[in-house]
Amino acid sequence: MDTPLREPTYLILTALAAGPMHGYGLIGEVGTLSDGRVTLRPGTLYGALDRLVDAALVEVDREERVDGRLRRYYRLSPTGAATLTAETERLRRNVEAATARLRRRAATQPNALRLAGGAA
């Protein structure tokens, strides 16, 4: 899977960087990581997990029965960790470039942030 990653994929890999998780745990963690901006539905999540397993970015960690239902746990693979690291570095460089340009802009146009609604 090539970078740039779509945000939901990036957040799934980020959640799994903390350790193995089952599907509903991932849904909650992605919501937390995104401050509620990204909400995964079960069908969307499991489709994404199937694609990530096929791409060797995620592996099945284990399965267990809970209340008569099978619960599958997933973990980040070494390839997934390398992909997440590369994507995080790409995003970090983009943030640094944007931050530097916004600082220069603010220094030359002191009212620019206030006119735009003031962000920072």
TrEMBL record:
Organism for this UniProt entry: Micromonospora mangrovi
Pfam families: PadR (PF03551)
PANTHER family documented for this protein: PADR-FAMILY TRANSCRIPTIONAL REGULATOR
Protein name: PadR family transcriptional regulator
Signal sequence, start to end: none
Domain Transcription regulator PadR N-terminal: 12-85
InterPro entries to which the protein is assigned, alphabetical: Metal_resp_DNA-bind_regulator (IPR052509), Tscrpt_reg_PadR_N (IPR005149), WH-like_DNA-bd_sf (IPR036388), WH_DNA-bd_sf (IPR036390)
SUPFAM superfamilies reported for this sequence: Winged helix' DNA-binding domain (SSF46785)
